[in-house]
Task: inverse folding
């Protein structure tokens, strides 16, 4: 089990240089104030950053990251992190990741862990609406020639 | 279960305005490269930041954070995050958190999750040595009058 | 003379919550490598950030900023900084500022200080083309009720 | 004239990997609020960062920087920026720069531009006292083999 699996991040289709991840906040993700831990939001953004930056012909290693928190999120909230490329250089590259909150789908408005899969045919929340941006991440990677087949 | 419990962060004694946390990297914390996920290191630093900033007479909410990664860490590595106050103002405050790696104690050099408590009398690793700094975090909080007894 | 005047920043029209500034790199702005000093690019972005954040009904004071440098720029290069609002809250707000390099207009391709005003009728460079982003800035302000008429 | 000369930064002795710079805030350095422009404080920190990072056996180019502002400073204030090495790697390195305000020396307490040199024998302000930290900067450079004799 990887860290992304431990936190139940779900990867959605995206172009090379981009990434879209979805995660549900559960009671296991909260901080001392009862809202989602800053580390949980960060981890979602960081994973999207890692996928986007490693989708190019190089291994990308995070050097320096910055995150601004706009609003708290709570158990039951569905989050979508969207990573996009700001600059792709030979040795370094920079990505922006917006983390947006989407309203709970109909019939899923109670807070708490949700193990049930979404019903077939449900549109991905990030396709319905842009949601409300709750945090913004900027990260820079160091790029080196790929050593292995790892993505 | 909170996020800090999910990740098995262990809180060590510290003065007001400071915090010291310890965590062991396990296989559940790794990224696509097999080293600890940036989100795991960040979460440890962020939790130390939250404890230190909420130890003052106000509720502290993270606004803006920055993290630099120096070296990868791997399953079996023991990490200690030490938060200290850089500036304490009325409405905002800034903290620095250094994350250091400590060598595995004798007899504990195999990677993997370690549920066994440290033997009585073992010195806390961060008291033995400063370790090697593997990441550096700076975070700024917004402070507002405390609403509740939460720490 | 203010700092923005010392560095000859030129303010272009923009909506509330936004700002657009233009500046020419001169030999007085270079660093030890002969390219524009990081502080010059930063100051341009920071001034756009200040104008955008103070265009709202509050005095905005910079708390925390982050900047990534993508490419060096040189004397003669024309820079345009465009600030936009990422999040406007009651007590804090966050802005993004992209700094783009625009090719020297025809007949102005020689590096060096340019004191001559642009000819009337010249289109503003940022209207011609998006330019090439050379640096990206993110900044967060603390907002407090306006004390004076200062903009 | 370089940018550091334009802003009258004064370099004080420091060990390799470190740097200490001093500057006086003048009326030409102020922002719309009448305090020193964020870009002025940043430029001082950035120049100390550049000197420290280029004092090693490589050319260092700034990639990513972060700055937190703690307190405003005003014309007449004397600032000292002290850069120290947080991490020196082969391809990247990270520096911390603290910017401190020092009280005006006796007989120099009036705000405004000060063109007079310090009297011979005056102790450097940063040797007298640590001052009050007004801003904190963290910066990461990319290091590449030195091409020239430039420092």
Result:
């Amino acid at each position: 089990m990887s860290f992304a699996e431990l936190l139940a991040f779900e990867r959605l289709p995206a172009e090379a240089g981009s990434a879209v991840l979805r995660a549900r906040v559960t009671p296991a993700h909260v901080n001392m104030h009862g809202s989602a831990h800053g580390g949980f939001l960060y981890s979602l953004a960081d994973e999207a950053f890692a996928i986007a930056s490693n989708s190019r012909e190089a291994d990308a290693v995070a050097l320096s990251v910055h995150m601004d928190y706009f609003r708290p999120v709570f158990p039951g909230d569905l989050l979508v992190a969207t990573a996009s490329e700001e600059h792709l250089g030979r040795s370094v590259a920079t990505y922006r990741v917006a983390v947006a909150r989407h309203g709970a789908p109909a019939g899923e408005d109670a807070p708490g862990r949700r193990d049930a899969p979404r019903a077939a045919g449900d549109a991905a929340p990030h396709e319905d609406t842009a949601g409300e941006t709750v945090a913004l991440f900027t990260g820079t990677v160091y790029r080196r020639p790929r050593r292995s087949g790892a993505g």
About this structure: Confidence is low (pLDDT under 50) at residues 106-128 of chain B. Chain B has three helices and six strands.
